[in-house]
Amino acid sequence: MSIRTRFAPSPTGYLHIGGARTALFAWLYARKHGGKFVLRIEDTDLERSTEASVNAILEGMNWLGLDYDEGPFYQTHRFERYEEVIQKLLDEGKAYRCNCSKDRIEKLREQQMAAKEKPRYDGHCRELNLSADEPHVIRFANPQQGNVVFDDMVRGTISVNNQELDDLIIKRTDGSPTYNLSVVVDDLDMKISHVIRGDDHINNTPRQINILKAMGFEAPTYAHVPMILGEDGTRLSKRHGATSVIEYRDMGYLPEALINYLVRLGWSSGDQELFSLDEMISLFDVIDVNKAPSSFNNEKLQWINQQYIKEDDATRVAQLLSVHLGNLDIDPAEGPSLEDVVVAQRERAKTLIELAEVSQFFYRDFEEFDEKMAKKQLRPVATEVLKAAQTALNELENWEIEPIHDAIHGVAEQLGVKMGKVGMPLRVAVTGGAPSPSLDLTVYLVGQEACNRRINKALEYIANRTEA
Question: Which residue of 164, 356, 404, 421 has the lowest C-beta tally within 10 Å?
Answer without folding.
Answer: 164
